[in-house]
Structures are given as C-alpha cells and as structure tokens.
C-alpha cells in the first residue's frame, strides 16, 4: 500500500494549482465533501462553513497572494469554488472555531546526533473517513528549489522537505486564544516555510508574520538545527532541542507562557501520555535505522500510550481516529520516507521513498 503521488510541471501558482486540481479532481472534491461531513457532525452550519472559507481566502490573499491564486487554480481544475478549496486549507481554523475536541492526533520525534543527519519520525493521525485524502506532491516554488510534501488533496502543504535542506513535521494544538474570526490558515504557514525558509530563524519569522486564529506546532529541521515553532493567536514560541539534541512534541504546548492557556487540557490526557512514551523511548527514536525509530512509536491504548491509533467504529465520525501515516524526513536526499498506516503495520518493505 502506497500513497498516490503527483509531480507538478507548472511553476506559476495559478497554473500549478489548476494542473493539480485537474489531475486530482475526484480526490479534491471527495476531500472537501469529507470535511463538509466532519464539520456538520461537529455542529457547523453550511452557511458558517462557507463564510469561514471566504474569510480564509481573504486573509490568505492579504498575506500570501500567490497562495490564494494557487488555491483558486486548484478550484478551477477540480470544478469547485475557491472558498471550497480554502475550507480544506482552513480545516484547522474551522475546527477551532467550532471548539471541536479530539482525543487522537500526531506524535513527533527529532534527534540531532553528534554525527550524521537528523533522525526524525512522526505519526499522522486523523479521522478514518478521510483516509483517502493524503497524497505526496512534488513542486518547484523557485528555480532550483524542489519541495516534496505529504498533504491532503487540495491542501497546499503539510509535512515536507525541500532540497534547500529544510523539512517540517506538523502537529495540531488548541489554545484559549483560538477564535472564530478566521485568520491565515496554519497550513499556509507550513507551505511558506517549505518554499522560502533556510533556517529555523527564517521559519519563525514567517510564522510571526501571520495573523492566525488557530494553533499548531511546526517542527522545523535542518541538517544542523531543529526547533518546534508553537503558533497561536496569543503568540509564537520557539522550543529548542534539549541538551542531548532531542526534540519531541505531541498536542499540547511546551512553552511555559502559552501552556498556561492550553485549551481542553483536561479533556485530552492522551497527548501527555504520548509525550511520556516518546521520552521513555529516546534510545529507539535515536536509532539511525528508520524502521527501529518507527517501532519505538508502537503503543496502543488502553494498556499503553495511544501513539498508534485505531478507530472505534462505534463512535461518530468526528470521534474516530486512525494513524494514517508514519513519516520521516531524509534531509540529505531532500526526500520523504512514508509508510501508509501506523507503526504496528510497519515492515522493512512498506516504506515509500518520495
């Protein structure tokens, strides 16, 4: 089992988007429909979702006009309206506006060894009815710079790596400052970091330049440095590795000031359990071999931390979580290593190199 791939031939944003939308028309439309179902079950009205999509498109155009153009191109190719593609890119913001609480989500580990490239791995957990949304996309934002990203059909980026030697991991957060007045979608921040940044400082500057309405953490890794950039309407914090070069993150804030405003902390104990699991398995997560690192993420509830998630089919779709991918950054090669599914399904032969 592998994720579908798409390599853009167009470099102008609107043309690139239209090419993407045309070739992936059914997937983009299905992803929008899947999010429409999720928002409905979570309590949003269709008129609210449209208004939020239009607002997200407006804020995106003000902050990064070329990315708004690319979303409009995807819409044209996929037979959708631009606000509908903006909804897919702003799904984090819409879920924050609804005040949606989820108990699953991603776990990220980065280790900077004394010698050799960074050793990274993360699980990507999301709703099981959206398991067909992910894909791998390669495009060229500038001549000579190639970006490869694991993303969802219609979303401009998520987890990824560039040939400039920088990559990002990605986890959702919740903060009391999150608001229904939609800001710049955090997925677009990840996209601009992949397209433009060469250092952690560059990435933090891009994050600080955006007015956001929802929270996330983008863990930025280069061949020599790493940091988790925690983003919320209350501010941006940069979390460095510890003295051993270890940097790990789940779905709660680590910055002391931002942590004081963490949203739904008592309702999401799994994130704290998962971070303890990561910290207890540093040896495995430090291994040069990716397969060993992935197996160090193996943990199932209720006996262990729910790092590897499986959906409870008795629950409504907005409360069903599945580890849909296990992902690592190969910075020297400018490539992603991706396994479709959770750590419990990993074998030596299931890794997809993109």
From TrEMBL:
Peptidase C45 hydrolase domain ranges (all copies): 160-335
Superkingdom of this protein's organism: Bacteria
Gene3D superfamilies in UniProt: 1.10.10.2120, Penicillin V Acylase, Chain A
Record key words, sorted: Acyltransferase, Transferase
Coiled coil stretches, renumbered: none
GO molecular function: acyltransferase activity
Name used for this protein in its record: C45 family autoproteolytic acyltransferase/hydolase
């Amino acid at each position: 089992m592998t994720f579908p791939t798409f390599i853009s031939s167009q470099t102008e944003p609107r043309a690139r988007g239209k090419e993407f939308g045309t070739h992936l028309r059914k997937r983009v439309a299905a992803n929008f429909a899947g999010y429409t179902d999720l928002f409905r079950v979570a309590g949003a009205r269709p008129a609210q979702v449209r208004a939020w999509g239009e607002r997200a498109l407006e804020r995106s155009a003000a902050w990064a006009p070329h990315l708004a153009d690319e979303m409009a191109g995807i819409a044209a190719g996929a037979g959708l309206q631009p606000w509908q593609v903006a909804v897919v890119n702003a799904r984090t913001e819409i879920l924050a506006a609804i005040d949606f609480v989820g108990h699953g989500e991603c776990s990220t580990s980065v280790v900077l060894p004394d010698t050799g490239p960074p050793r990274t791995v993360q699980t990507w957990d999301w709703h099981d009815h959206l398991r067909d949304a992910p894909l791998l996309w390669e495009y060229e934002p500038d001549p000579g710079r190639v970006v490869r990203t694991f993303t969802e059909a219609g979303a401009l980026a998520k987890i990824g790596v560039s040939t400039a030697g920088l990559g990002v991991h990605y986890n959702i957060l919740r903060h009391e400052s999150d608001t229904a007045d939609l800001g710049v979608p955090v997925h677009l921040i990840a996209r601009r970091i992949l397209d433009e940044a060469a250092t952690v400082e560059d990435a933090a500057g891009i994050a600080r330049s955006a007015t956001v309405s929802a929270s996330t953490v983008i863990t930025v890794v280069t061949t020599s440095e790493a940091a988790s950039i925690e983003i919320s309407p209350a501010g941006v914090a940069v979390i460095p590795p510890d003295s051993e070069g270890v940097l790990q993150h789940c779905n709660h804030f680590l910055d002391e000031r931002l942590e004081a405003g963490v949203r739904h902390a008592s309702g999401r104990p799994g994130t704290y359990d998962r971070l303890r699991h990561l910290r207890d398995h540093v040896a495995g997560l430090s291994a040069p071999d990716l397969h060993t690192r992935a197996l160090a993420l193996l943990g199932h509830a209720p006996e262990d931390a729910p790092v590897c998630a499986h959906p409870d089919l008795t629950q409504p779709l907005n409360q069903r979580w599945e580890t849909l991918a296990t992902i690592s950054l190969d910075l020297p090669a400018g490539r992603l290593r991706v396994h479709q599914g959770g750590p419990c399904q990993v074998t030596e032969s299931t890794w997809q190199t993109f």
